[in-house]
């Protein structure tokens, strides 16, 4: 079994740290931009402009990395999710938030497992139960979805054993479901990214304009000899 500490990857950790850094930089940038605009401080406006350039370049770089390294990222994500499925335990309160998040994904995308319901055969609890239980969030029954998490009893078995083929669950794996969702919402995603980039460009233009205005005002205030 995979230990919880193994359910991560260097690439995803690096991405998380980058997002945290960008978030902190954005908060600092906004504060400096407001302070520079209100008090007409050119150096702060220049710093604001520089931060916007850095963030814009970081976003472009992140997009290129995701595009050119998508197969590697998909493989790492597959490893993480399968480890999560293998170690899924509804009674483990330490990992409850992580498990609830995965239950939410399966219920919302109407999928089961990463590549399919077969992934759940590696779960030790279900294996020890002779596969007579199945993930409630995978179910295509409305009464099971009301439970929303944990395992549901199959029932109606003759010999007391089953396989994932006997489960009333969705056939589609979440990998295919996520890819389908991204394709269906590609226009919205690109629109949001474009909107953010336009706002950043406008901020850069405004900061340059303010700097020029401040410079012009300072020049006119200088006494002529």
TrEMBL record:
Keywords: Membrane, Transmembrane, Transmembrane helix
Domain of life: Eukaryota
Stored Gene3D superfamilies: Tetraspanin
UniProt membrane topology term: Multi-pass membrane protein
GO cellular component: plasma membrane
InterPro entries with a match to the protein in the record: Tetraspanin/Peripherin (IPR018499), Tetraspanin_animals (IPR000301), Tetraspanin_CS (IPR018503), Tetraspanin_EC2_sf (IPR008952)
Membrane-spanning residues: 16-38, 45-68, 188-211
Main localisation: membrane
Subcellular location per the Swiss-Prot or TrEMBL entry: Membrane
Matching PANTHER family: CD82 ANTIGEN (PTHR19282:SF44), TETRASPANIN (PTHR19282)
Family: Belongs to the tetraspanin (TM4SF) family.
Protein name in UniProt: Tetraspanin
Organism: Smithornis capensis
């Amino acid at each position: 079994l995979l230990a919880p500490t193994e359910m991560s990857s260097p690439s995803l950790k690096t991405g998380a740290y980058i997002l945290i850094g960008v978030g902190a930089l954005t908060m600092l940038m906004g504060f400096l931009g407001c302070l520079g605009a209100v008090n007409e401080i050119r150096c702060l406006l220049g710093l604001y402009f520089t931060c916007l350039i850095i963030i814009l370049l970081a976003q472009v770089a992140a997009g290129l990395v995701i595009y050119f390294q998508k197969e590697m990222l998909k493989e790492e994500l597959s490893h993480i999710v399968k480890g999560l499925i293998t170690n899924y335990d509804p009674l483990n309160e330490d990992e409850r938030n992580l498990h609830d998040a995965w239950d939410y994904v399966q219920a919302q995308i109407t999928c089961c497992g990463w590549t399919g319901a077969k992934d759940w055969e590696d779960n030790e609890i279900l294996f020890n139960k002779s596969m007579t239980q199945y993930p409630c969030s995978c179910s295509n029954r409305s009464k099971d979805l009301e439970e929303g998490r944990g395992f549901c009893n199959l029932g109606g078995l003759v010999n007391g054993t089953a396989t994932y083929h006997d489960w009333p669950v969705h056939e589609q794996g979440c990998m295919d479901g996520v890819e389908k969702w991204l394709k269906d919402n590609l226009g919205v995603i690109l629109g949001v990214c474009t909107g953010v980039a336009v706002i950043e460009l406008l901020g850069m233009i405004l900061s340059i304009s303010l700097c020029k205005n401040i410079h012009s005002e300072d020049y006119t205030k200088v006494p002529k000899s």
